[in-house]
Amino acid sequence: MEVSSVEMIRAVVFDVGETLVDESREYGNWADWLGVPRHTFAAVLGSVISQGLGYRETLQVFAPGADLSRERQKRIDAGAGEWVGESDLYPDVRSGLAGLRELGVVVGIAGNQTARAGQSLRALDLPADFLVTSEDWGVQKPASEFFDRVIEASGAAAGEIVYVGDRVDNDLAPAKRSGLRTAFVKRGPWGWIHRDKTEVAELSDWQIDSLQELVGIVASVNCYSDNEARRTDDLEELGRA
User: DSSP characters for 149-200?
Assistant: First the structure.
């Protein structure tokens, strides 16, 4: 008797910027560094995002030819380097991550961030089983190698992992190509601007407004999967009888 298998969710891995961390303060710091009004920087960022681009291209609007890595180092040298504090976390981060761990799933954090940002995040002692940045790994999203590392760090099969992010290009699309399930979180500039794109509906298994929703989803999926597994065992036993 052939019965299709049901995959449980064994790991949930989160993007960082605008998924766990509200980057408003950091964008404001960039505006200050570039010498432009914060609302102007925010408006240009939104325009650039609507074109399918990102903050690197936003930098070019205000400082044509500038190198992002060099500008970051200049900020560090000037005592204005990036950092992440408790107040930068979205309010549902600690409870959401803790809720998922209570369900027995592996919780990971992996995004396109600098090693410096990673150090700040680790200092917050978030309830996660691993926390790495693209600079730690030497590979950035949307490269498939990044998601290969996510799968390896999670210790689960690709189809048992949910990658959570706010972007189509860096999160949903490449995670899907690597065989992961995906959750789109509607917040931050990318989340709001891209929320109605057809790609979001096509590439996300779930669309959420908060991490607490995700806790409920994982609990429901795993309960259903467990019940189906038990039912499968019963049917197979009947088939052998």
Answer: HHHHHHTS-GGGEEEEES-IIIIIHHHHHTT-EEEEE--HHHHHHHTT-HHH
Name the 3-class secondary structure at 120.
Answer: helix
pLDDT tens for the chain, residues 1 to 241: 233 345 899 999 999 999 999 999 999 999 999 999 999 999 999 999 988 888 889 999 999 999 999 999 999 999 999 999 999 999 999 999 999 999 999 999 999 999 999 999 999 999 999 999 999 999 999 999 999 999 999 999 999 999 999 999 999 999 999 999 999 999 999 999 999 889 999 999 999 999 999 999 999 999 876 565 454 444 344 344 4
For the chain, the first-to-last Cα distance in angstroms comes to 11
Half-sphere exposure of 137 (CA within 13 A, CB side): 23
Neighbours of 49 (CB within 10 A): 20
**What are residue 206's phi and psi, to 5 degrees?**
-140, 150
Q: Does the predicted model carry a pTM greater than 0.85?
A: yes
Whole-number Å distance between alpha carbons of 120 and 25: 15
Block residue for tokens 């999670």? 154
Nearest-10 crossing angle of helices 93-102, 211-240: 10
Tokens of residue 68, six digits: 């992002």
Pair 205, 183: CB distance under 8 Å: yes
